[in-house]
Design brief:
- It is a single chain.
- The chain has 24 helices and 4 strands.
- By secondary structure, it is mainly α.
- The protein has a two-stranded antiparallel ribbon with strand order 1-2. A two-stranded antiparallel ribbon has the order 3-4.
Length: 570
């Protein structure tokens, strides 16, 4: 939703609207929800037109990436099979457990990761930093996936890798521009081909190299780690694997379109949320181990450097059956896989950048424009050859990512059940404090301490287990701070529109925003004393001059609202 003609309180620099028109209007591209996908707001029930199965299959289609192959191979090559296996399985368990409450909350409330974070202990501006954390996840992994795709094109047709980086960046733009509808079609159309490409190499090796798995189990790595278990290797490897913990945010970008849960779809709804939310990591862990296995089998033929690039092991695995056709077949599989994930990375990145800049600038030029910012950063990382520093980069990122995700999960599970946090997710600026120390404070402390540990300040073991330090501190501090403050910083004032104390017969009923004059469902509406009526969450966010009167003026009180309009069906 992009300001073109705006209310006097919004600093857009646009001409005032014609007399009698809305005080804020949005540019055509930003006002088109088929492209914008409610990027900064609650996804209304009227827009959630996909079935639970369709949402789940689309979300799972986005995890087709081959970075898992590279990450798994890098962990096992560096720390050996035994430590690597323990690392991958431990990280998967942590990611699964923390992902369950987040996935359920996103699907239930129709909110993306940023809005969930706001209401789960971080506050309105407190979640701004997490938008950057999430944005960095999307462009780091876009660059990683793009590098893998460029390697495949170089192998297949000799395209220079630097040119391949540009091609991988440009190819996703038309799809991401169209939003969720286009992404759903791409994921559905490419899924059969991807499944065949994923299964075939392992099928070939099962017949052609049946003893390879046994040899893989005693593999000691390429860096002298040895085949036995090492606590240092386990800690460092887990840190690298935990860099994927923020993937739940990309799953949430799909889960917010889950239809309402009902008695009729209850079982399918629960299964779809579990599969499309934390369930992605089950497939992800299997891919990490599978990628490490393929790299191990190809090691002698292609060398360590190329074995870590998914395209080369794929070719070697297919060669016994496909011969000279192994190269184009492997290249096609890699390209399809990387397109499937990078449209998701680019889409999710545009959402997180939109959330970040709308709060800082009180302007929103539309989700689609932030696609270019995210892709420009990703392209720069590719050109800088970030693939060569994979372990160090992902290990560092894990410290911040796990502190954030753990704090959110703990708030949803512990703080809300105890009563220190509201029983629902409140994401609107009108009802939130700027910063909530429960979530934001625990994340900040956990991140700083674990990063210091990561850089060796507290010794070798603390360095190896820095991500465990981050998770442990967030797990303890979030409820501790919520208890110490008695939940004071969650709600600046009660929500009389659709809060727990409001008698709401139908949340799909609508109010017309007094600023943009568009009807929105009740969860997206706040009562505004400045406008003396209802205001939608986005117009509230973009108001630069209201002075937060609703939260700071004790005399403001609840606003007398008109009766909401109940949608009727024929």
């Amino acid at each position: 939703m992009t300001d073109t003609a705006a209310a006097p309180s919004a600093r857009t620099g646009a001409q005032p609207p014609p007399e009698g028109g809305p005080r804020r209007s949005y540019a055509r591209m930003a006002a088109d929800e088929s492209r914008e996908d409610y990027s900064l707001r609650y996804a209304p029930y009227s827009f959630r037109r996909w079935s639970p199965t369709m949402v789940a299959s689309t979300a799972l289609g986005g995890i087709a990436y081959l970075a898992d192959f590279a990450i798994g191979a890098s962990i096992v090559f560096t720390y050996g099979f035994t430590s690597g296996l323990a690392s991958i399985l431990t990280a998967a368990t942590i990611i699964f457990v923390t992902g369950i409450p987040i996935a359920r909350a996103c699907a239930k409330y129709g909110l993306d990761m940023d809005l969930i974070t706001r209401g789960a202990g971080f506050g309105y501006f407190g979640s701004t930093l997490t938008s950057l954390i999430y944005a960095s996840f999307t462009f780091i992994f876009f660059a990683l996936e793009g590098s893998i795709m460029a390697q495949a094109m170089h192998q297949a047709i000799g395209l220079p890798v630097q040119v391949g980086y540009l091609v991988t960046t440009l190819i996703v733009i038309p799809i991401v521009f169209r939003g969720m509808g286009a992404l759903a079609k791409v994921q559905a159309w490419t899924q059969p081909l991807w499944i065949i490409g994923m299964v075939l190499p392992f099928l070939v090796l099962a017949f052609e190299a049946p003893d390879a798995w046994g040899a893989f189990g005693s593999f000691g790595g390429t860096e002298g780690a040895g085949s036995g278990f090492s606590w240092i290797g386990f800690g460092l490897g887990t840190g690298v694997a935990l860099s994927l913990i923020a993937q739940i945010g990309e799953q949430a970008d799909y889960l917010r379109f889950m239809p309402a849960k009902s008695e009729a779809n209850r079982r399918r709804w629960n299964l779809a949320v579990l599969a499309a939310g934390p369930g992605w990591v089950i497939i992800g862990a299997a891919k990490q181990l599978g990628g490490a296995f393929l790299a191990f089998v190809a090691l002698d033929a292609v060398g360590k450097t190329h074995a870590l690039e998914p395209i080369a092991p794929q070719i070697e695995a297919l060669r016994p059956w496909l011969g000279s056709f192994a190269l184009p077949a492997a290249a096609l599989f890699v390209i399809v896989s990387q397109v499937k994930i990078n449209v998701t990375n680019a889409y999710s990145g545009s959402l997180s950048w939109s959330n970040f800049f709308s709060r800082l600038t009180h302007r929103h030029p539309g989700r689609v424009w932030y696609i270019f910012l995210n892709l420009a950063i990703a392209l720069t990382l590719m050109e800088m050859n970030m693939f060569a520093a994979l372990n160090k980069l992902l290990g560092f990122y894990s410290n911040v990512g796990i502190a954030w995700i753990t704090a959110v999960a703990v708030d949803l599970v512990i703080n809300k059940s105890v009563g220190w946090s509201p029983k629902y997710i409140e994401f609107k600026r009108a009802y939130l404090y700027a910063v909530n120390p429960a979530g934001f404070g625990s994340m900040a402390i956990a991140s700083v301490v674990s990063i210091l540990a990561f850089f060796g300040l507290f010794g070798r073991y603390a360095e190896a287990f820095s991500t465990f330090i981050a998770a442990g501190l967030a797990l303890v501090l979030c409820p501790l701070i919520a208890w110490a403050t008695q939940g004071r910083y969650y709600l600046a004032r009660p929500n009389p529109v659709n809060g727990p104390e409001a008698a709401v017969a139908d949340v799909t009923a609508t109010h017309t925003c007094a600023v943009c004059e568009t009807a929105y469902e009740l969860p997206d509406i706040a009562d505004c004393p400045v406008q003396a009526g209802p205001i939608c969450s986005l117009c509230c966010s973009l108001d630069a001059e209201c002075g937060d009167a609703c939260r700071k003026d004790p005399a403001a009180g609840p606003v007398l609202m008109p009766l909401p309009t109940v949608r009727t069906t024929v």
